[in-house]
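Quick question: what would this complex look like in 3D?
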Amino acid sequence: MNARSPIKPETLQSVSAQLAGQPIDGEKAAAHAEIFEGIMQMIETLRELPIKDVEPAVIFRPVERGGEDGS
Amino acid sequence: MSDITELSIAELSRAFRDKSLSPVAATEAYLARISAHNDKVNAFVTLRAEAALDEAKQAEADIAGGGWLGPMHGIPIGHKDLYQTAGIRSTAGSRLLEDHVPTEDATAVARLKEAGAVLLGKLNTHEFAYGPTNDSSMFGPCRNPWDNARFSGGSSGGSGAAVALRLCAGATGSDTGGSIRMPSACCGITGLKPTYGRSSRAGIYPLCWTMDHAGPMTRSAEDAALMYQPMPGPDGRDATVPDRPVPDYAAALDGDIKGLKIGVPTHYFFDRALPENAQAAQDAIAVLEGLGAEVREVDIAHIDYAAAAAMVMYLSEGTAYHDDHIATIGELYTDQVRLFLELGNYILAKDYLHAQRYRTLLGHAMADVLAEVDVLATPSLPLTAQPLGQELIEIRGQTESVFGAILRNTEPFDLTGLPALVMPCGIASDGMPMSLQIAGRPFDEAGVLKVGHAFQQASDWHKRRPPD
């Protein structure tokens, strides 16, 4: 796994504005960065799991009219 | 009858049926308690006194005319405000839905209505079920009936507080990371999170589509069996619900657990709990052993990653559901929920899929263990209900967030979709309830209810109640 750079407020500001379409100010970005860095460190542990041949638990269901399509 | 609100659902039902008690008298008794005590805990957020009395009168007339619908007929209950109720305000605890009145009932609401239950009103919830404490809600925090300075647990906090304080006989809850079981444990009642897909989530505002469950919160396993009975089965609205037979849950409560194999996963569930909570669970397991169960220690592979995977699920699916509103009317959310929703913007798709792959892995690990034992027994929570606003807690020398700690023992069974029952098993030195969790194989709600009932036949923790 490549080493990851710490989460920066500027990165989160950019993601929020350009990818999520929800711009945030610098103060909020700094607060988010601090919290998200901790979350990211926890989440990254999942990448170390032996899941190479494991399928995700989400299952695609073809939509059938008149049936239970979840809509 | 001295105190009608002390009667269980089972006792009320018998009394209604033999006409020694009227559903009207029971409804009046609960309405009187709500009037006297609800302000202490802020559990009911919408009350429908007149409509409830009308329903109770109808139930009385129907039962008198030979039209008894079953054990829930005439039973006064409440619904979590996450459940949509036709013609009744349904807010999800959020200013976004402050005046929202749905036109259609959630399936669970409709089925309990068809079973004859009397609806007293709607119950406080953590905003959109996105938190384990119920301190973030447009109605203000729901308080713990055992100590009003502490949280009720969440997200189904109103349901937990109301059932514990005898403001209703039973209530509905929903559980994504533990939202039925956490408030049940914090408030000293019994809560059942069924198997994922066993009962429909249609008409319940989602938090995470792949982890949401609907179930009952009551004072005993017997009452949970009776209240849950009408809820399972396909409805044509929720594609996750399979068409498989629904057992008679109450019939499974024979109290006989001789030879039942109980697995005790000490790693993760016990060794990261406050010693008192772990000991109370061990003592409860000893009671089950005394009833003839065989107890053995087990180890669940990969369990340490559960919190990371659950966090990804909340952040990804929660933010996806609320994406439109965060961008346009984000200021209407409470600060904590808005923060979580905004943090979801930074989760990568690959991490979401890693988390879903982990769920498969954990599911296999649980299945391996449950091939050797019939149920798992753990402390429901590694801590007791903490003071409102407290963010950190020290457990065995480690300081961690209250949010993280309270979710630890419940969310593995949301990730794997396994049925799990929690029930009170002690009172801690801080005066708050402690709780035992029993988890079982997929679709074996009857099995976990049976164990719960056996324990409650041999102990009286479920009869303890908070002071008025």
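Answer marked as accepted. The interface with chain B takes residues 7, 12, 15-16, 19-22, 24, 28, 32, 35-36, 39-40, 42-43, 45-47, 49-51, 54-58, 61, 68-70 of chain A (CB under 8 Å).
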